[in-house]
Amino acid sequence: MRLLSAGLLLCSFSFTVHGQRLSREACLRQIDSIFGSQQGTFALAFRDLSTGRELFIREHETFHAASTMKTPVLVEIYRQAALGRLKLSDSLTLRNEFTSIADSSTYQLDSADDSETALYRHVGERRTISELVYQMITVSSNFATNLLIDKIGAASIVATMHKMGLDEVHVVRGVEDNKAYQMGLNNTVTAAGLMGLFRLMAERKLVSPAASDSMIGILLDQHYNEIIPAQLPAGVKVAHKTGWIKGIHHDSGIVLLPDGRKYVLVLLSKEVADEKAAISAMAAVSGLIYRYVTQ
Questions:
Q1: For residues 75 and 257, what is the distance between their CA atoms, to the nearest angstrom?
Q2: Per CATH, the architecture of 42-272 is what?
Q3: Residues 88-98, mean pLDDT to the nearest whole number
Q4: Could you report the per-residue pLDDT of 168-189, keeping only the tens digit for each?
Q5: For the chain, what are the domain ranges?
Q6: Which pLDDT score, from 0 to 100, does residue 6 have?
Q7: Residue 221 exposure: Cα atoms within 13 Å on the Cβ side
Q8: What are the DSSP calls for 63-88, one per residue?
Q9: Residue 132's closest CA among 74, 76, 216?
């Protein structure tokens, strides 16, 4: 399956492979070979913040957000903290009961479907917003995410993304709202939308310089590193958020090079038949882009 069309000839840069520069056409063949070998749909958005060079593949195509939606939640938490609406030191009661946006019925999360399970053993206790934010991002806790969305409101996240010009990042509900999922009421993203968010963060323009730095610090502690960081050398840091559900694997974030340069990379996938192979393919594209930036 060929994924690169004439509209994608933004790949005007070249990579170095085995000491030789690749032409634009060779670059397209490399990416086409990597993604085209997979059954599924892939999107990519890349921007080198030092040079302004970009690469886009299906950048405005909509994907189910999976857990990449947790980065906009993080942003809204910091925005409300900056406005004095909450403090990161405030605490929330751990309660496993949430309201579906489909019909206002209540539902619970199952720890078996969550990547973090310890919180479920402490229902009734309290945790600070700061602790919940850290678990939401670093270990992708669904429980922490839903508690935080209940605190700040999904509508506030939508409004903030709109104000920032990031309408392609759309968070309308918490996680595991199965009734809403069956009705097609889902959180969605595009590669371009997530790239815009991380670009603002990398440029220290998201909420404030201090807030941007703090959010990057949390994202640097990401536990799931199978895609963007997987083929990068030691010393390269990645502040990123992954996301996955059946047939879908994403990664999105900021790559920080030892010499101080930065670039933003978003890799999205859907309708994937072989998930391990798709993860490897996206990791290979990440490695290819790293070699371009550092050649």
A1: 23
A2: 3-Layer(aba) Sandwich (3.40)
A3: 98
A4: 999 999 999 999 999 999 999 9
A5: 42-272
A6: 30
A7: 12
A8: EE-GGGGHHHHHHHHHHHHHTTS--T
A9: 74
